[in-house]
Every structure is written in C-alpha cells, then in structure tokens.
Amino acid sequence: MTLRLFGYIALLGSIVLTTACQTTTSSNSTLGEKNPEKAVQLRTQLAAEYIRNGQLDKAKNELDNALTTNSRSVEANAMMGVLLQQEGSPANMKKAEDYFRRALSIESGNAQVRNNYGTYLFQLQRYQEAAEQFKIAGSTLGYQQRYRSLENLGQVYLRLNDKVNAEKSFRQAIQVNRNAVNAKLELAELLYGQQRFTLAGQMYEDYVRSTDQRNQSAQALWLGVRLARVRHDDMGMQVLANQLRAQYPESVEYKTYLQLKNGSEAVWK
Fold first, then answer.
1. Which is nearest to 173 in space by CA: 158, 190, 194, 187?
2. What is the pLDDT of residues 58-102, one digit of tens each?
3. Rounded Cα distance, 15 and 116, in Å
4. What value, to the nearest 5°, has the Cα angle with vertex 174 and ends 221 and 115?
5. Which residues 6+ apart lie within 8 Å of 170 measured at CB?
6. Are 187 and 204 in contact (CB under 8 A)?
7. Which domains does the chain have, with CATH numbers?
8. pLDDT of residue 33
C-alpha cells in the first residue's frame, strides 16, 4: 500500500510566497519592530520554503526567531513540529509532538494542525490516535483540504485492516472533492479485492481520467493490469504491463507481475 499522507509543509493556507526568500534578515528585523505578528507570519512562511528545499537549519533559525517574538503562534509552533519531524532523529521526533500539542492547546480547532499531527502519529504507527486527528480534520467544514484528511483516515483504517471504514472514508473524500484521486484509486483497489470487478473498473477509469494515463502510479498500473486480465483484455493488459516496466522497473508491483504473469487466475486474485 502506497501512503499518500498530505505533505508535511502544508500547514498554511497559501504556504509559500514566491517573494519570501528574497527578504533579507535585516528587513525581517525592521518588520519585526514595526509589526511583530506580520514578522512571525513571514518567518514561518520562510521556514516552510526552507523545509521544502531541505534547508532545515535555516528553517530552524527562522522559527526560533518567530517563536521568540510570539511563543503562542499556532503556525510557528506547528511548523516547528513539521521541521523536527522532517529531520527525523529520535530526539527531534519526540520534541515534534510537544510542538504539535502546543499548537493545538492554543487553537484546538485548527484542522490543518490536526491533519499534520495525524501524519506524525501515523509515522509512529500510533494508528488509533492518528485516526482521531484525521476524523476531526475531516469533519471540519470550511477546511479546504478536508478531503485529504479523509483520504488519510482511509489509509489508517487500511493499516488497521478495517476495510469497511476505509471504504467509507474514501467515499466521503470523493463526496467532498470529486478530484480526490488517491481516494478513487484506493477505493478501486478495495472493490477489486471484494471481486466487485465492474465497479472497480469504473472507479479505476475515473481515477485515470482524473490523473492522465501517463501519470499513473505503480499501484494504479498494477491494478489496471489485473482488471484487464479479469476482462480478458490481453492487449490492454500488455500495454499497462509495458508501461509499468518502463516507468517502475524496480517496483514491487512490477516484480509481482513478473512472478504471476504465467500463473492461474486464482493466483492473481
């Protein structure tokens, strides 16, 4: 199963301004004197850009300055959690939780922080706790990325082997956003596993229309191969298998295809 948890640095609505990295430290200081809250916002945005580019030390400096200015900034605390999680060492992973919790203690209704804290918990395999965070974020009306939290919730249920609730979550994600492509793919996979091949094929085709035939993941191509086999569509199956080989020759999916291509129908299912 491929994880598609919403990106670590998606904590701000419009997260990175293209002009942000052109701002100098001195201008930040001047801004901080005139408008401290604006300075905190700008430093947090700069930190997000630095994290995106892998410049973690620079991000840490910006966030330290932001939190010195305002230790109760929800965005700066949450972004510090993201930064420490991104760095990934045991010590920083432990510290990251403190920042996520601090952000939520300041603003418990912040759905984006809930989603990113859920991502953190998922990474630590604390699935029940992650589910609670994604449930809250996924039920927060007005949260623009609500469908992604529902997709994430579905992934948690898959890890818990709760396919009924996983299917429910993926369907909810699609209801919220018809372009929830990850939910479409995972739902098609679940339907295939239930041998509801017609519905699985329809959902897979919907996924392909949403993503473009050439941009399919290894998981999607492998599902397409299996669905083509069920339909006895030898040509379609071969086209997708060739695409899988060309784009993902080292993937688990292609290696599985090589192992099964001469197997019986029962083995494939």
1. 187
2. 999 999 999 999 999 999 999 999 999 999 999 999 999 999 999
3. 14
4. 95
5. 150, 151, 154, 180, 183, 184, 186, 187, 190
6. no
7. 36-108 (1.25.40.10), 120-201 (1.25.40.10), 212-268 (no CATH)
8. 54
